[in-house]
Amino acid sequence: MPKDLKDHLNELLKDTTDFAKDELINFISEAKGDSTDFVKRIGELTEKNVKRLALGKITRDEFKELMEDLLDLNKMQFHKISSDSKVRAQKIVNGITDLVLNKLLSLL
Fold first, then answer.
1. Most buried residue, 53, 62, 78, 97, by most Cβ within 10 Å?
2. Residue 80 contacts residue 30 (beta carbons within 8 Å)
3. pLDDT tens-digit profile of 3-14?
4. Quick one: three-class SS letters along 41-96?
5. Rounded CA separation 37/25 (Å)
6. What is the pLDDT of residue 22?
7. Cα(15)–Cα(17) distance, rounded to whole angstroms?
8. Predicted local distance difference test score (pLDDT) of residue 21
9. What's the Cα-to-Cα distance from 6 to each of 1, 2, 97, 103, rounded to whole Å?
């Protein structure tokens, strides 16, 4: 393999690796922040509902319904994170594809 081509391939490997690493780091950081805020809010709502039940402001049936609503919110958050993961994975694929195509075009 000619040295020039080998240099281009090594540069491409470094660029694609750096791109994917940066995207994953950003995604994980964003997901952690979103999840922390979400968990905190769910905890606050749970505590509020338990206090309302204990004070007799809501019935057991109302409490059960409120807790089922929180469970639904948890499921929606899970699906959001799952969708976000798929979008980010596609962004990585598209970015790597662009890097490869641009490198190949630069060699022409």
1. 53
2. no
3. 788 888 899 999
4. HHHHHHHHHHHHHHCCCCCHHHHHHHHHHHHHHHHHHHHHHHHHHHHHHHHHHHHH
5. 19
6. 93
7. 6
8. 94
9. 7, 6, 19, 12
**What whole-number distance in Å separates Cα of residue 99 and Cα of residue 86?**
20
Residue in the block written with tokens 């709502």:
45
Sequence-ordered list of residues with C-beta below 8 angstroms from that of 77, at least 6 positions apart, any chain:
35, 38
Structure tokens, 67 = 């807790």
Residue with tokens 């690796």: 17
Structure tokens belonging to residue 26 = 């950003």
Of 94, 85, 88, 105, nearest to 16 by C-alpha is: 94
Report how far apart the first and last C-alpha atoms of the chain are (Å, whole number).
17
Token pair, residue 81, equals 């994170």
